[in-house]
Amino acid sequence: MGAGKGMDKWILMTTARAPTNIAVIKYWGKRDETLILPLNENISVTLDLDHLSATTTVAEISLSGGRFQTCLREIRYRGEDFKDEKKGICIKKEDWQTLHVHIASFNNFPTAAGLASSAAGFACLVYSLAKLMNLKENCSQLSAIARQGSGSACRSLYGGFVKWTMGNELNGSDSLAVQLVDETHWDDIVIIIAVVSSRQKDTSSTSGMRDSVESSALLQYRAKTIVPKRMIQMDKAIKTRDFASFAKLTCADSNQFHAVCLDTVPPIFYLNNTSHRIINFMERWNHNEGTPQVAYTFDAGPNAVMLAPNRKVGALLLQRLLFYFPPPSGTEPTSYILGDTSLLEEAGVQTVKDIEALPPPLESKDSVSLQRYPGDVSYFICTKPGRGPMILPGDQSLLHPETGLPK
Amino acid sequence: MGAGKGMDKWILMTTARAPTNIAVIKYWGKRDETLILPLNENISVTLDLDHLSATTTVAEISLSGGRFQTCLREIRYRGEDFKDEKKGICIKKEDWQTLHVHIASFNNFPTAAGLASSAAGFACLVYSLAKLMNLKENCSQLSAIARQGSGSACRSLYGGFVKWTMGNELNGSDSLAVQLVDETHWDDIVIIIAVVSSRQKDTSSTSGMRDSVESSALLQYRAKTIVPKRMIQMDKAIKTRDFASFAKLTCADSNQFHAVCLDTVPPIFYLNNTSHRIINFMERWNHNEGTPQVAYTFDAGPNAVMLAPNRKVGALLLQRLLFYFPPPSGTEPTSYILGDTSLLEEAGVQTVKDIEALPPPLESKDSVSLQRYPGDVSYFICTKPGRGPMILPGDQSLLHPETGLPK
Hints:
2 copies of one chain form a homodimer. Chain A has helices spanning about 65-75, 115-130, 140-145, 205-215, 215-240, 245-260, 275-290, 310-325, 335, 340-345, 350-355, 360-365, and strands spanning about 1-5, 10-15, 15-20, 20-25, 30, 35-40, 40-45, 55, 80-85, 90, 100, 105, 160-165, 175-180, 190-195, 295-300, 305-310, 335-340, 375-385, 390. The first copy, chain A, is about 35% helix and about 20% strand. In chain A, the strands form 6 sheets. The first copy, chain A, has a 5-stranded mixed sheet with strand order 16-17-15-19-18. In chain A, strands 12-8-3-20 form a 4-stranded antiparallel sheet. In chain A, strands 4-7-13-14 form a 4-stranded antiparallel sheet. Chain A is built from 12 helices and 20 strands. The interface between A and B is medium-sized, with 33 and 33 residues.
């Protein structure tokens, strides 16, 4: 992010990287559309920066987006004096209002895949702007600004497991992210994302949420009566690393969120036949083992996010997923399994032949339906819980240090 | 249905036909599993006997089914004296307990298609047994017996629009069907059923319902708080023939039932991608016209039941369905559109070429997605609301009048 002023020779720049996150107690429904205040509290896990993050510096971006403007205004308003005597830069608090901002940003994962790219993007924008303008606010306070860009962005200001609190203030200032535990607390969790092939255009979450708030009686009941109880249970499950409780709550809450979407007028469908199959396969596995091996959760799209308690179970999960959803012929494992590909070794899968030779999962052996579905999943991303946003060194800036234009 | 006794020469027989029905306020969840008492009241429309009915006379049937035994016991217990002096038959009340019953039954529609075949079947069984054994009970009282065979069967004892009342008695005797209006009250309604191709095995409604009652908090809320209000609104919409209100309530209640299925642990999926598409197409049409043209509802499977207010709109509906879901190549319209095929003429569709030449619906013209989905629907059935069960003349018996064995 660069700030240049008229005839001056300097450009001040900050580059940051922020992670995406996935909710395990879902956010669906706003009680205030402009301030983006949630109808219910919710909890997410932050995903590893290396695999799913936004990096932000500069570009000649159109500044017309209402939500972008909100974030920029809120940060500028809180800007502090800045002095760098070596470079001869001296900026007064009030100068931030008039300085021009250049912004460049990219995601290291497909934006179109429906993986909460706006969460990472707005978190990164707010975080980098705040560092540029020397804000004193902590991450929790910054999260209340990011929230106004995209609701779930507030949770990407922290690593580990993060709670978005309801807040009481009319202006929304106390509806912000709180870190429940950091990324080291439960660090053996393995996460696999199935990016599901889809022909259907998804309903945007902003308009879908609005329709649900207006028309679903079940959503009101969920927000008022069910979620408060689940928040307490989920908080406890996370703090005690109780994977069985965590998995049951995560799956139930994902399914209830999609139930509310169906109860909306007109109904919203995010899950497709492939999503249904993934759920059925995971439920059958969990049922067969007697205790949950895997948790699954789906956001506003057909992609599955699956969590296993450790690498051993993670490898078993990957084997199952590759058995049911092998790559289409001609696709190499290396372009079909992305992210932390070391899990492939533990799953004993290196080549296309290894995938073809995978035995049916035990829980499917007594079943007639041993059908495999090549092509129904576009690719998998293997990852894990991760840290919050970070500042990158100057040489990783996306903008040229002298012109302030994209490199 | 035949009753033969040891060495006697006579066989007494009754043949009946009973319709199936489709709920417009859904029944999902029992408060008593054995008596089959519903968690909420519900309303159905009875479908035309000519297109979707069960016909029952005789066969060497295994009498081991628990629910079948319940119905038989309840009817026998209420049997009355019977005398036919011409044939020399004289049966005392108590004789019904020991007489042997032969039963034969068939449906005039595919049982596997998931079109509530058990509703028509049990209604027909109870109705024909009651006539055979000369019961004094009226249809409403008989419905409480049919209910113990299959919950929704109670509603097939009447034509037109039928309400299944909750009842207060512990023994379930007042949880029975009441006719809201008969089939002549709203007789211009056209019904089209899309039998959707499906690879997936459906969850049985009995076990699905049980899982929902045990695990879905949304179901409890729906049954206690939402359905009572909808029952009043639906009753009014039906009595005043207010199609717009009827359609909104019918669609919302179908979607909420499927939402509750999704909220179940493990989740239940009855709707597939084709069901989703049908809903989206119907919603788009209704939205585009500004007022509902069509109501849709889905039971425990992917098949759509669509209702239009009159033949004119019914023809427009059929055009749309055939545009989006043309028969696979080589299939003639006559084997693709079943039931009351006279609607085809009004839709201007007689040949495969007519279907191919159908213009895109107006509401789809501005959309990029003019895709058609041949093969996604197995066939359509055109029908209308119909009458309750009827007794058929002796020559239509399914059993031989002298041997009592299947013809």
